[in-house]
Write a structure and sequence with these properties.
This protein is of the alpha+beta class. The protein has one domain (2-143). Helix content is 23%, strand content 39%. The protein contains 4 helices and 9 strands. It has helices spanning 16-21, 60-69, 94-99, 121-133, and strands at residues 2-8, 29-34, 37-42, 45-49, 55-59, 72-83, 104-109, 113-118, 137-143. Strands 1, 2, 3, 4, 5, 6, 7, 8 and 9 form a 9-stranded antiparallel β-sheet that branches. A hairpin with a 3-residue loop joins strand 7 (104-109) and strand 8 (113-118). The two termini are 26 Å apart.
């Protein structure tokens, strides 16, 4: 069974979160943002943090605005999408994810290694082909057989 996808993104400033999440209607979810390290880019330099708290609950429209309003540099990102009306909760393992209301998990480590877990196999396929079209490297499906991740966190 497909759990999601993994790939490498360019370790550079840009609209990485917007680009990765493009196939997803970000505004349709409530998001839990946790343990991230990402900065706005101002005049070519790192500016204020993209997200200002260690754990943050964001409505999808606000997240959409944040990832589209200006370029950023993402070092670590841990974003989890929950349906509107659901209360975002911390998830530590794939089992937690599978048993929760959470629909999508995006993890970025060291500014390069991206993992997206998704309960919807059609969306996983869409994300896979989107990542290929964007030119991301080493795009691969995560399955029950090959998933080596022990936790759903970036630290």
């Amino acid at each position: 069974m497909i759990r999601g996808i993994t790939f490498e993104v360019p370790n550079k400033r840009g609209y990485i979160l917007r680009d990765i999440l493009a196939p997803i209607d970000v505004s349709a979810f409530n998001w839990l943002v946790k343990d991230e390290e990402a900065y706005y880019v101002v005049d070519g330099e790192l500016g204020e943090q993209l997200f200002s708290h260690q754990i943050l609950h964001l409505e999808g429209q606000l997240l959409q605005k944040k990832i589209e309003e200006q370029t950023s540099f993402v070092i670590f990102a841990d974003l989890k999408a929950f349906p509107k009306g659901a209360v975002p909760e911390e998830l530590e393992t794939y089992k937690d994810f599978n048993e929760s209301d959470c629909e999508v998990v995006l993890l970025i480590v060291d500014g390069t290694f991206a993992t997206v877990y998704c309960k919807d196999n059609l969306l996983s396929e869409t994300l896979f082909y989107h990542a290929k079209r964007k030119g991301y490297l080493d795009v691969a499906y995560i399955t029950d057989e090959n998933d080596e991740r022990t936790g759903l966190t970036v630290w």
